[in-house]
Each structure stands twice: as structure tokens, then as C-alpha cells.
Amino acid sequence: MKAGILYNANDIRVGEAPDPHVAPDEVLIKSAYAGICGTDLHIYRGEFHERVTYPAIQGHEFGGIVEEVGSNVQGISVGDRVAVDPILSCHACPACLTGHINACRSLKLLGVDINGGYGQYVAAPASHIFHLPDSVPMTHAPMVEMYGLGHHILQRGRVQPGEIVVLLGAGKLGLSILDVLCHSASPGLTVVVDRQPFRLDTAQKLGADHAINIEQTDPVVTVMELTQGVGVDVVIEAVGHYHLVDGQEPPLAQAVKMVRNGGRIITAGLGEQLSAVHFKTLVIKEAEIIASRVTCGEFPRAIRMMAKGLLHPDLLITHQMPMRDVTQAFDIVDRDQPDTIKIVLDVQDI
User: Fold this and answer.
1) Which one of 39, 190, 222, 267 is the catalytic residue?
2) Catalytic annotation on 210?
């Protein structure tokens, strides 16, 4: 088969790869569309060298058509339209045994540790296959994983109706969280913080009440003014790698200052930078910092919301490109083009 193959750091291009073997408990999927996310960019840049072995076939956000069904599989048929949960857990370590399968000590992901959706065909466990209703276009299949992340992050943060929520970062992840937040969690007030006008405009289209550009104003000052000095119930940090503005602190430090006494901070970004936090302030507020990693069974909820038309993937998918242009696609993401949010690749157009 053909695939978008990462041969080394910063070297991704179309090449030939072996066809996958289908085990009795697996299905073979003809990959249709796959997304490029922040993790894919980190892998592309060589930051996952301890996990990723070259040549690698990325793509953990994908969906397609069932091509073959293993001998032990029931409930799935050839021709079914499906999305794939890429998370493979051991189900035996302490984290798995206490329900945190997404924090498994030996966690593996299709498209990260194992060949994924950038190949024309992918073998995946039948237990990780979810049917896509006809009302969900196949081009939107890569967004199921992103919206699953949004659900998981809000659940980790115990976000309640009527609460005031600040979202730091309006990239692919931040806007996916915002879409779920505004259309499932009934927030009392939502504030989005970023540095790109296009992404902030998109945030307001998705339902954000306030969009703060850090190049123009200090977000901590503005948030405290909006809350009459009380602070917010929840701050979600979805920045990852950050760019400091003169006179401002890193996002996590800002979050500690923005959150109210007894509030919650959820960290979901995967930046490599260290962030200094004023822990005295955190302790005095008795606020919480809660980490959130990938998903934990939220795919069905995301699909149901998409099927009802409650979410807005068309606002987030700014580019649809053929897999034959995978090199160009990653170059666009790597340069952080201001008009780019989500790129979806047509895997079969190769």
C-alpha cells in the first residue's frame, strides 16, 4: 500500500509500506480521512524519538470504511463507515485497573507507536471501532478524536453549568474543547485567550463571550476585571508550546492568578517548556491543578453530538488536502500559519 511515511525528523513524504495483517479480533480499515494534530507535529519535529521508530506511519485521528473483518469479530461488517479510537492500553497496570486506561504505563497509540491512519489501510482492534452515522460526513471523522478530547477535559475539570471558564489557547485542541464546552456544558461565561486574530474570531463564532488577544492586553488583568476581582471557576490550559509577550507570565502561571479560591485548573497542552508557578498563591487559594491526557471512552458521546449537528467541525477544518501533498501540509502546520486551524488529509488521494 501507499502511505504518508515519516522517514526521519522533518522528513515526511509518500512511500510504499507493507499491507497490514488482520488478526482474528481486528478489522481492516480503508482509511479515508486523517487529521494532523499537535502531537503529529511534535512527532514530525523529532520530539517523540524515544517512542517513534522510523519509518513511521502517523495518523491517530482517522476514519474510513471497513474492508475486512477478523474471524472473531461480531457486530461489524464490510462496508461500515467507522471512526477509530487509537488508544491501546494494557488493562493490567495500576492505572488501568483503577479505570485510568488513558494513563496506562505502557500506553500505545495507533499513529504514534503503531502504524496509523496515514496509510491506505490500517488494522485496528474491533473493540476500538465506532460506527459513524450517515449524518456525519467522512471528512469529519478525524474530529471525533478531537471532540472526545474536549469531553474528557471537561469531565476531568468537573465543569458545571453556569460556571465561568477561561480557555488558554485557541488552536486545534483549544477550539475543539470550546465547541464541546459551549454546546454541551452550558457555561455561564466563556473567555478565550490567544495571540492569533483568526483563531480568536473563530472562537467567538463557536460561542465564546470574550476573546482576549495577548498581544494587545494582559489576560490576567482583563479576566480579573470581568469577574470583579473574584477570578474564574475553571481555567483550561491548551497552549502547549507558548510564546511569551513582554511583561506577561507563562500560561500556567497566568492560570494560577486567574482562578478563583477553590477553583480548578486543567492542563492539557503538551509543551516541552518549564513553567514557573507561584505555589504560595495556589496554596492560599486551595485551587487544584488537574492533568488531562487523551481520551477515556468519550468517542460515542462525541459522535452523538456530531450526528445531531451540535458541533461545528467545518469551522475548525480550514484545509482539506490530498495525502500526496503531505509534505506541504506538515510544512503549513510547522510554520503555524495564522489562518490554519485543522488540516485533514484525503488518504486515498495519494
Assistant:
1) 39
2) no
- The helix (run of H) or strand (run of E) holding residue 190 is strand 189-194
Angle at 80 between CA 75 and CA 86, to 5 degrees: 80
What residues are paired with 62 via a beta bridge? Answer: 34
pTM of the complete model beyond 0.85: yes
Phi, psi of 217 (to 5 degrees): -155, 155
Q: Which three cell numbers stand for residue 107?
A: 500506553
d(C-alpha 2, C-alpha 92), whole Å: 35
What DSSP element (H or E) covers 17?
A: none
**Whole-number CA gyration radius for the chain:** 20
Residues 109 and 1 sit within 8 Å (Cβ to Cβ): no
Indicate the average pLDDT of the chain.
96
Query: Would you call 75 helix, strand, or coil by DSSP?
Result: coil
User: Residue for cell digits 485533514?
Assistant: 344
Task: Catalytic residue, from 42, 60, 140, 151: name it.
Answer: 42
Task: Report residue 343: phi and psi, to 5°.
Answer: -105, 130
Q: 212-270, pLDDT tens digit by residue? A: 999 999 999 999 999 999 999 999 999 988 888 988 999 999 999 999 999 999 999 88
Active site residue 42: yes
